[in-house]
TrEMBL record:
Pfam families: Amino_oxidase. This is NAD(P)/FAD-dependent oxidoreductase. One of its GO terms (molecular function) is oxidoreductase activity. Coiled coil: none annotated. Its cofactor is FAD. The lineage of its organism: Bacteria, Bacillati, Actinomycetota, Actinomycetes, Geodermatophilales. It comes from the Bacteria. It comes from Blastococcus carthaginiensis. The keyword Endoplasmic reticulum does not apply. Residues 23-454 form the Amine oxidase domain. The keyword Oxidoreductase applies. Its EC number is 1.-.-.-.
């Protein structure tokens, strides 16, 4: 979406929405559908937030890209605006490179006889059992809140998982879904996240799960369609500096002027929210929650070829890699018609910190050497190579989502997670009960925040 900064901001509007990611756009759409006018302001020069599609030789999704069958809000939005999807390619042999360098071929979710795999699945079932005890609408009501939020996932794995190989598999699972290391999140947050998705398998797998489908025109396409419908109500390249509220309303101060409103929906990631000055200051629990919510560390690297040559060799393009290399997971990200070949490599956590310290050519060589070991010499000669290192993004400062630090749920979750502060309401994937951390969760959070506003009978 091109910037609309050249248009003057209105001096007043019933509702201001801060942030034009999926949360902010869905909030604005919900308000518009109910006949309530709003203004959406976004610091970046585009809409979509952590969903960012670029048209190069083919469609490249730098951010969120998948949709699963239980992600009803995203599917409904895509259907409303005519954004078709297609099945993620996973036909053929998957590859697993183990920590000793051995390479195995397999089909299904994992190699049947691989090291540590039996206990890995036992732990997955146990996590599902524990997650089922958490009420995702009221997570801090869990009787085990303090116990589980006081223990890191790393400590829990070390204490309860016997096989070092199973722990190695679980570590990569945590990196792949939470884009962080197991030492950085609590058992409670891990369990809440699993509960919000429905199961451990929903987070990890493709068919029938979170990675089942992709968008023909990229995952940003529904967001672009919503912004197009909202028209001049969406203004990019407008940065909110302060939000001040009193008994009569709210003033939203931006670098393009001040707007008076009755209500504000803040739909930005925690790092962006932290840069806004609030008057009066936010309650301690809300402020601490923002401060202690840390974005994940992940980079997506797309490598483009003339064709998906690995398919002719019976390979799916899916790979998991354990050990010292930079890349953790690889997927086939080619378009549905296979007119061009694309592999996408994910780099997480500690691996990202080491890899991102290298210069660009060294980073490129690390990735291409990994792909060459997996798919042969042709993988070392791409026609295009593009990186998106999300911690370096000026607005998100990480991805996929923010993870509350151990102890944050127990200490500040009840009052700090998403409870409105006066006339200020909170949206964003990190405030979702279902599909926390995903586009679907962002959409549902925007709808919830809009309903909170509408329940206050804001004038249209």
């Amino acid at each position: 979406m091109t910037t609309q900064r050249t248009l003057l901001l209105p001096t007043s509007v019933p509702v201001v929405v801060v942030g034009a990611g999926y949360a902010g756009l869905s909030a604005a759409l919900e308000l518009a559908d109910a006949g309530t006018a709003c203004l959406v302001v976004e610091s970046a020069d585009r809409v979509g937030g952590r969903a960012f599609t670029e048209q190069r030789d083919t469609v490249i999704d730098h951010g969120g890209q998948w949709v699963g069958p239980t992600q009803h809000h995203l599917l409904a939005l895509a259907e409303r605006f005519g954004c078709p999807t297609f099945h993620t390619h996973e036909t053929g042999w998957h590859l697993e490179r183990w920590s000793d360098g051995t390479l195995a071929r397999y089909t299904g979710a994992a190699p049947d006889e691989a090291a540590g795999i039996a206990e890995y699945w036992q732990v997955a079932r146990r996590l599902d059992e524990l997650a089922a005890t958490i009420d995702v609408e009221d997570p801090t009501s869990s009787p085990h809140l303090e116990e589980w939020d006081s223990v890191t996932v790393r400590s829990w794995f070390d204490r309860t998982v016997i096989s070092p190989d199973a722990r190695r598999r679980l570590d990569l699972a945590v990196q792949g879904v939470w884009s962080t290391e197991a030492r950085d999140i609590s058992v409670f947050h891990l369990l809440f996240y699993i509960a919000s998705a429905g199961s451990f398998e929903q987070l990890m797998e493709t068919d029938g799960c979170a990675q089942e489908r992709r968008f023909h025109r990229g995952a940003q396409s529904p967001a672009l369609a919503v912004a197009e419908q909202l028209g001049d109500a969406v203004r990019t390249r407008v940065t909110v500096l302060a939000v001040e509220q009193d008994d009569n309303g709210v003033e939203v101060h931006t670098d393009a002027g001040t707007v008076r409103a009755q209500r504000v929906i803040v739909a930005t990631p925690p790092p962006a929210t932290a840069r806004i000055r609030f008057g009066p200051p936010l309650p301690v629990d809300r402020a601490r929650w923002i401060q202690r919510s840390t974005m994940g560390d992940v980079a997506k690297v797309h490598v483009v070829y003339e064709a998906p040559f690995w398919r002719a060799e019976g390979l799916s393009g899916v790979a998991t890699l354990y050990g010292e290399g930079s890349v953790g997971v690889v997927f086939d990200n080619s378009p549905d018609d296979a007119s061009i070949g694309v592999l996408v490599a994910f780099i997480y956590g500690d691996r990202l910190r080491s890899w991102s310290a290298l210069d660009r050519e060294a980073r490129r060589q690390h990735v291409l050497e990994t792909l060459t070991r997996l798919y042969g010499d042709r993988a070392g000669a791409p026609r295009d190579y593009v990186e998106k290192n999300w911690p370096e993004d000026a607005y998100a400062r990480g991805g996929y989502a923010a993870n509350p630090a151990p102890g944050a749920w127990a200490e500040h979750g009840a009052r700090g997670w998403r409870r409105p502060v006066g006339r200020i309401h909170w949206a964003g994937s990190e405030t979702a009960s279902r599909w926390y951390g995903y586009i679907d969760g962002a959409i549902s959070s925007g709808k919830r925040a809009a309903r909170e506003v509408l329940d206050e009978e804001v004038p249209s």
